[in-house]
Amino acid sequence: MAGRFRFAQGGGVDLDDLIAVQHGLVSRAQAITCGLKVRRIEWLVTSGRWRRVHAGVFATFTGPLTFEARVWAAILRAGRGAVASHRTAAFVDGLCDDPGPVVHVTVPADRYVQCKIEGVRVHYAHRLPRTRHPAATPPRTRLEETVLDLVDVASHPREAEGWVTAACQRRLSTPERLADALGRRKKIRWRPMVEAMLVDVADGAQSPLEVRHLRRVERAHGLPVGCRQRRVAGQRVIWVDVDYDPYSVRVELDGRVGHVGEGRFRDRRRDNRATVDGHATLRYGYADVFGDPCGVAAEQARVLTARGWRGQARTCGSSCHVRSHDHQ
User: Is beta strand 83-84 parallel, antiparallel or unpaired with respect to 103-108?
Assistant: First the structure.
């Protein structure tokens, strides 16, 4: 940083301190509030000591911008009330390992950012005063709100499932906190699936995921009736979510959010044992059963048919693609 500026803001904030907090970025309005004259700002820019990043936003150093500096530049350019959000906030909070190619910011819905900001995606939210974190730097949405924002813009249920699972696996949030945030949202995409995920976290038999499989996969497509939560005794007692015993086919429904560690190895041992015993094991999660029940039914039908089932899967509606899958 070229030069030190000791101009006190009305609230006691010093320009140097402000620039340090904002990773070397400052807006024109902030600099003037801290005591710099417009002519001085112009000289700093023309002399190369400062450089313009966006309209009215300057970097006070040379060299490439760090990710944090890019985030601050976007927030300062977006203006009053702007916060980092979506994938940008997710990266800052450790929810994901890749920030993506653009910086995401959200501004209050009662104002509009007039000009397009290069490298920045601007979102608008009526609830921003309640969803922004009260103290985080850089300003950003609360972790649970970030997760739900990403769920809402997810193009595929598996993507939405991934954000919820990541928040719990990385111990950044809990199903209870996510459910509380979800309850305060009037509209959100993939709500039934996310609600089921959060309800399922501590439940076993007859979870919403299993009920969905029974109704929307098995019954809706005329598949044979499976035995649910079947206890299989051996060297170790295991539980099979759905067992089609006459055809040696088992379906496992992963209804545990953030399922890692010993549980994952236990599932693997169970699946391997089933294979050794001649069973075929199919495993599905929320994104499969809620997002594409017809695709799940088609896959199960193919495996069941290959193992002796003589029935015929039926379509569940005009848009169902079970039969097209069956003939592949």
Answer: antiparallel
Q: How many CB atoms are closer than 10 A to CB 170?
A: 14
Calculate Rg over the CA atoms of the chain.
27
> ∠ at Cα 215 (283, 165), nearest 5°?
45
Is the whole-model pTM more than 0.85? no
* Domain ranges for the chain: 15-196, 208-326
Query: Taking the domain 208-326, which CATH number applies?
Result: 3.40.960
How are strands ordered across the β-sheet holding 238-244? Answer: 227-232, 238-244, 249-253, 280-284
User: Quick check: bond before 134 cis, omega within 30?
Assistant: no
Distance from C-alpha of 268 to C-alpha of 262, rounded to nearest angstrom: 10
Provide the 8-state DSSP code for 214. I
3-state secondary structure (DSSP) of residue 25: strand
For residues 94 and 111, give the distance between their C-alpha atoms in angstroms, rounded to a whole number: 30
Query: Any idea what DSSP says for residue 136?
Result: -
Q: What are the tens digits of pLDDT across the range 157-176?
A: 989 988 998 898 889 999 89
d(CA 178, CA 68): 26
